[in-house]
Design brief:
The protein has 606 residues and is an alpha/beta fold. The chain folds into five domains: 1-113 and 168-203, no CATH class; 118-160, no CATH class; 211-309, no CATH class; 331-526, Rossmann fold (3-Layer(aba) Sandwich), CATH 3.40.50; 534-598. It is 41% helix and 12% strand. It contains 24 helices and 20 strands. It has a five-stranded parallel sheet with strand order 10-11-14-9-15.
Length: 606
């Protein structure tokens, strides 16, 4: 039977004794005899101060009780457990009265009892209870020297009475057996509580026991159990994050970096160590002792999702206004040594505007990628790094069709795709698909569900060659720039004004897609690696308005009919498409239905 603190206090105020028992069996035994109230081992309210307490139980328990309660100002005396077990109610009460009326000297500071010489004691002459006392009060060395029969006797007693331990009570705290049904979450405050406080009304036991902590729990709005201590749940953890002055504004979710951040002065990524430190803070400083790290982590995630920020957008908003000096159109000429013509000017304007557009409007349409061409060691990667800075730049090292590739895009603004010349035709096609994607869907490593992630990054390619294009459709997704001399200082000195100009132009309604049609196609066509059959095919097409692939294979390439295969037809189709020819309606020629390819009609430049 376990009594609440106010019930124990009622017994004390009425002059009845309070028994502190080692086990529930002993407590039940005394209660069944109608003697006194009991409290479980380990729960010692401050109302025991100045009171005389009767301790019942095993030898090590009685010594531990005396140490614990004496430090709290209680006068502890021990009732022989044999009397409690063998006597009736009248006998127990007579012994209790004698103990209460006995004059006792102040309890000395607890010290370990002297160790008796095992040679001077014959264990065979000791009763079981005295044997337990004797065994606990000799040293480990003395036990090791004893005959095996004494050790076997100790083991047998320990199995019968689990409280018999081999450690003196002054050297170790008492062991607890089983889980208590009710236990305060923290020790009482260290400040002295007068004995008269125990006689105050029982509606304020928590305030007396926990002092200012109870007021702090109320200030934070924590929900509490029936004993007045806070629940260790996610709701209380969230209240601490939301209302504790030392934690306000210290946890948020960065939508650009796609991770939880902390420390407003110098933002850092929230990690597992922060979860543990916050848990220890709640346990130690707020006395929510059962708070777990998983509960804390759940509260942190919820708190962060309700406070969403974007460090890239905040950076762009902090840039000073544009000084009205045009720089975007001549950027690739000034910084990369490219030609200054209509094509490079359009690429410069669109490149900077698409960077700002993807930052301020995540998931917006960006279908093209600049490809920097130049000799090895020219500094193409360093220039990309200088454009956005170290925090927002990354090189794509993962396979482009791998989920990890898309995860690596998070928190990066400009992503370099290196060695464009290393991609096969299928690889170039995959790059085009990735470039034009507006939303990436995947499950993050820490997440439970797949989510849509609007694209916030822009790709830029680098290569050492000028014939990297293997796309027979013309590679219209790529804007190649031939670099001759890279000026990193120019990029670093003018970067903020380049962004400021791009912001100004976007606000004015300019797009980031318009290109001069003829010049762009010419630049893209120059990077294509010609098929050996291209020259004879183009010569054969002069003066013709329609043609079949069979006619080109027979008359232009002059490939014997018995050697013609499907891949050969595909090569001719790719050449026709590169030349702009389009597939028309089928016609019957020489008794066979053929696919007809028609010369394109010239369109005005857009």
């Amino acid at each position: 039977m376990i009594y609440r603190q106010e019930q124990v206090e009622a017994h004390l105020s009425s002059g009845r004794a309070v028994f502190v028992c080692a086990t529930q069996a002993e407590a039940d035994g005394l209660i069944s005899k109608g003697c006194v109230a009991t409290v479980p081992n380990g729960e010692w309210p401050a109302i025991f101060q100045g009171r005389k307490i009767i301790a019942v139980g095993k030898p090590d328990f009685a010594g531990s009780i005396q140490i614990i309660l004496s430090e709290m100002g209680a006068d502890v005396v021990r009732l022989d457990p044999r009397i409690a077990a063998e006597s009736d109610r009248a006998g127990i009460l007579v012994e209790v009265q004698r103990l209460f009326n006995a004059t006792r000297e102040p309890a000395p500071s607890p010290v370990a009892p002297p160790l008796p010489d095992p040679q001077s004691v014959d264990p065979d002459t000791l009763s079981d209870w005295d044997f337990d006392d004797w065994w606990m009060n000799i040293s480990d060395e003395a036990r090791a020297a004893l005959p095996s029969k004494d050790r076997k006797r100790h083991i047998a007693r320990k199995k019968k009475l689990p409280w018999v331990i081999a450690t003196p009570p002054a050297a170790a705290a008492p062991k607890r057996r089983g889980r208590p049904k009710q236990r305060p979450a923290l020790e009482p405050d260290s400040e002295v509580i007068p004995a008269s406080d125990a006689e105050q009304p029982s509606d304020a036991p928590i305030a007396r026991a926990y002092g200012s902590l109870a007021a702090r729990w109320a200030e934070l709005g924590l929900s509490c159990a029936s004993n007045g201590t806070p629940h260790a749940n996610a709701s209380n953890a969230l209240y601490v994050l939301q209302r504790d002055p030392s934690l306000l504004g210290q946890v948020w979710f960065d939508t650009f970096l796609q991770r939880i951040q902390t420390n407003s002065a110098a933002p850092l990524e929230w990690n597992d160590g922060d979860d543990i430190r916050l848990m220890i803070y709640m346990q130690r400083d707020l006395a929510i002792h059962r708070m777990s790290v998983e509960t804390v982590r759940s509260a942190v995630i919820h708190m962060a999702q309700n406070d969403r920020r974007n460090c890239l957008q905040e950076t762009l908003r902090s840039i000073e206004l544009w000084d009205n000096v045009p720089r975007l159109a001549t950027f690739f000429h000034d910084a990369f040594g490219a030609k200054n013509n209509a094509y490079t000017q359009a690429v410069g304007l669109n490149f900077w505007k698409m960077l700002v557009a993807r930052a301020m409007r995540p998931g917006c349409k960006v279908d093209n990628m600049v490809v920097l061409e130049g000799a090895q060691g020219l500094g193409k990667s360093q220039a990309c790094f200088a454009i956005v800075g170290k925090d927002f730049f990354s090189e794509a090292h993962e396979q482009i069709d791998n989920k990890d590739f898309f995860i690596a895009l998070q928190g990066k603004w400009l992503v370099e795709v290196t060695e464009m010349d290393a991609f096969s035709k299928a690889g170039i096609t995959k790059v085009k698909q990735v470039v034009t994607c507006k939303v990436d869907r995947y499950r993050t490593p820490y997440g439970k569900h797949a989510e849509d992630h609007p694209r916030q990054s822009v790709f830029i390619g680098t290569t050492n060659k000028d014939d990297w294009n293997r796309d027979d459709t013309g590679a219209r997704r790529f804007w190649p720039i031939r670099c001759t001399d890279i000026n990193l200082d120019y990029i670093r000195q003018n970067r903020n004004q380049l962004f400021a100009e791009a912001i100004y132009r976007l606000k004015a309604g300019e797009d980031w897609h318009t290109m001069p049609n003829t010049e762009t196609k010419a630049e893209q066509r120059e990077r294509y690696t010609d098929d050996p059959w291209t020259a004879p095919t183009m010569e054969y097409l002069v003066g013709k308005n329609d043609v079949t692939t069979q006619e080109i294979l027979d008359d232009a390439v002059k490939l014997p009919t018995n050697r013609q295969q499907r891949p050969d037809v595909s090569r001719i189709v790719a050449i026709l498409r590169m030349a702009g020819w389009i597939k028309g309606a089928q016609q019957r020629r020489n008794g066979v239905v053929r696919n007809i390819w028609v010369r394109p009609v010239d369109k005005p430049e857009s």
